[in-house]
């Protein structure tokens, strides 16, 4: 049976169980596209490893992809669609969690002073926007993506 068909079947199975399964479905669809139009038994461990490696750096997302593929292949093994699981037997070491850097008050003052240089006739609010953004990030501990996606309803 084609890998793409089995991915669709597995996603439908998870949805039928009431599982949200959105991120996992995206990972499996990307995996299916990366492997091409192949039979499930033709998937090579080296191709799976290349898919997991992505850009080469082991991240938390690497482990998420690995877990999704491991559960998918267990599903296939139980139903006798595959004879073996083409995943690594040993896992790479998990990367150290990023240690946040906290700016000193002097560094914060210099950052805020630098926003004045962003003033532009084409974008008059640019300096004020960056000044406010830096203060918001510093005072709340939000990450940049969280701060940029705030809406008026959040305030």
TrEMBL record:
InterPro entries, A to Z: DNA_brk_join_enz, Integrase-like_cat_sf, Integrase_catalytic
- Report whether Metal-binding shows up as a keyword of the record: no
Tyr recombinase domain: residues covered: 98-155
Keywords assigned by UniProt, alphabetized: DNA recombination
Q: Where does the source fall among the domains of life?
A: Bacteria
- Give the molecular function GO annotations: DNA binding
The keyword Cytoplasm is assigned to this record: no
Protein name per the record:
Tyr recombinase domain-containing protein
